[in-house]
Amino acid sequence: MLPATTGHSAELGSSVPIYTPHAVSVSLPTWKDNVDYELGLERVHSKLSTGYPRFFIHLDIQKLAEICRAAHALSPQERCMLFPSEKAANLCRKFVADRALKQAIAEAGLEKRCRLVRFEASSSKPSSPVTTRPEPPLRIFVLFVPDEKIFGLARTFWQHTGLGISSRFAERALRLMGSFPVREAPRAPHSQSLNDLPSPPNSPAVAPRRYNVKQSPKFPLPAPPIPTGLETDENTSTYVEERYGRNLPIQHVQGAKLALRRRIADILVETAPSDGSSSPPAANLKRSERGAGQLTESDIYLYPTGMSSIFYAHQLAMSLQVRLHPDQPIGKSICFGFPYTDTLKIIEKWGPGAHFFGHGESDDLQALAQLLEQNQAQGIPPIAALFCEFPSNPLLKSPDLVRLRQLADQYGFLVVIDETIGNFLNVEVLPYADILVSSLTKVFSGDSNVMGGT
User: Fold this and answer.
1) pLDDT-flagged residues of the chain (< 50)
2) Which domain holds residue 257?
3) Within a domain: residue 21?
């Protein structure tokens, strides 16, 4: 795996691109490195300075967790996980208690022994060099668990759901407390200063229409500044982030969210117009009911990661079934086709479990139809939702969405389609879905340093 930048080699365990503080990719240069990483060998894992955020707890998050632990731990054995909301922390606490009981590694009552502490990071300093207003405080919900074994279950929750705090959240909290974030040590001298950076072009670029090459800017775009690895002045960091478009000031958060939701809605409308001008999926196939009118930003929901959007889609499906069938137990969900691993884990570990049709081909479609018919005849609780990927990750197989939609309409379950690999620019699956989920980590920014889901 090679970095996007030039002039530097990406060593084992370094970020890709190199010197990217919030990178979501890590360098594993050789096939042996990849194999040894999967085997968990110390040779590789001891050299990781970063990693995919749900699998590797960012060094800034580790540092912030140690600060919280030093301030609030009741014993040396206690460990902690950090969450941005009380709801996420309580979901983790319940998951840890349930799994520990099922795995016989803790007795009943563990949920009460997992403590939730509210930690606040604040500062009287201005939030930006161009404003005098102090930065708003950050509330961190710290879940303390009794020991390392239970902490392993909390790590599992973190990985599956993507609901932990982000590295940028941790960085901001550290700065508010007057502590520097952790950065990679430079592997080569780098003397570029702010004065050496090219200024942005004066002439505004024409707004691109979805990657239209003809409308791309004709001037060369400036390369992003490369961090030195040293502890830099906070004002300098803010200047670079805001001047070169890496971050908006925190005061613009609601406007940024609205802009993202509108952009996604616009793309989906262009891909699958609500006026029916797109190719109809089939003469006898009804579109899913989504209310009257054209798709708008109010139909788009943002999540911190792609997996958290899948997690909450599953939670929604189960809640809807409780509302529609209050006198029945919640039914299982279906995973159709071989998915990304954490999707199946979410369906299996939350709620009553899953039916897994791993091949996702015609034989599985026939078996699925038989299962649905038998469940209905025997009075078994109806299926809550069917989850599939289009195409699948990593096998790139595409299920028969027309047939799945027909079965969903016949037996009354939701169809949740993850189109991350194709993404909503390139695949038209909205007519077949009740819920679309997608990892924005793979689509937005272009710098491989943001997380998001929808």
Assistant:
1) 1-7, 188-232, 273-292
2) 251-272+281-294
3) yes
